Amino acid sequence: QVQLVESGGGLAQTGGSLRLSCAASGLTFSLYNMGWFRQAPGKEREFVARISWSSISRDYADSVKGRFTISRDNAKNTVYLQMNSLKAEDTALYYCAARHKVNIQYNYWGQGTQVTVSS
Hints:
Order of helices and strands: EEEEEEEEEEE
Number of strands: 11
Shape: globular
Low-confidence stretches: none
Number of helices: 0
Mean pLDDT: 97
C-alpha cells in the first residue's frame, strides 16, 4: 500500500520560511518523479514544483521561482519543499504526489499539509 505523508505545514509570517516534508512508503521511491501541488480556498489545485527521480531535473511554477526549493533524499524516501520569503498568497493546502518515471500522470497523492501565511 502506497502512502505519502506530508508534514511541516503551519502558520508563518510574511517573509518567513517553512520546510515541508513528504515521506513515501510502499513504493520504490527512487523510480518516481515527485511533485508538490497546492490548493487555496475557492481555487483549483495548482502545480508548485517537481523533481525527477534522479534529482537532475527540477521545475517550478513562476509564482514560487526563486523562493521555493524542491529536493529529495532517496535514502530516506522523502521529498522536501523549502519555502522562503513567504507571501499571503502562498496560503494553501500543500500536497505531494508521486509519478513513476515512465508515466505521464501522477499515480499517488498525499492528504496534504496546511500552510497559512499571515502579515
